[in-house]
Amino acid sequence: MKNAIYLVLALLIVSCSATNTANSQSAAMKKKTLKGTWSLTDIRFIGEEGLYKADLFGIADSPCFKGGEWMFIPNNGTGRFSINGTDRCQEGTHRILWSFYEPGDGSTELQFKLVDTKNKPLSGDKSGYRMIIKSLTETKTVFMVEVDYKGKPFDVELTLDKVSKDVTL
Length: 169
Fold this sequence. Notes:
Layout: H1 2-17, H2 27-34, E1 36-46, E2 55-56, E3 60-61, E4 69-73, E5 78-83, E6 92-101, E7 109-115, E8 129-136, E9 140-149, E10 152-164
Antiparallel strand pairs: 1-4, 1-10, 2-3, 4-5, 5-6, 6-7, 7-8, 8-9, 9-10
């Protein structure tokens, strides 16, 4: 009986400590986990049902991003993402400068701005974009982006799967 209690307690401790969420990691660990090349495998709309045109990051409609590649280089905060060309989407690669932002409510956000090849911001002002990190593991990350459609906000969930730890712009 005593051994059974110890076994249950051990399993409970292991199961509670095994989760690897964005909120429980240090900033250095989050950067190490995010390092590499990722493929955007799924896009979901959260909220009311319906058809939406979700323009992401001032670049393209959300379906254009599916199958695209994201790369994060943590030692200098640079990276890029790509859009695959289709009849509705213009192919392209966009360079970014990124960092983490912690608003104080226990969440972590990935913030980034679009930059040129010399890492100078493309927009004249200091604007950029933020995505809430819903989860971050060695193999999968989920970001949530708030967008606006006809004056109503809703969330778009982006799921990325790690392709490799290699990082080359």
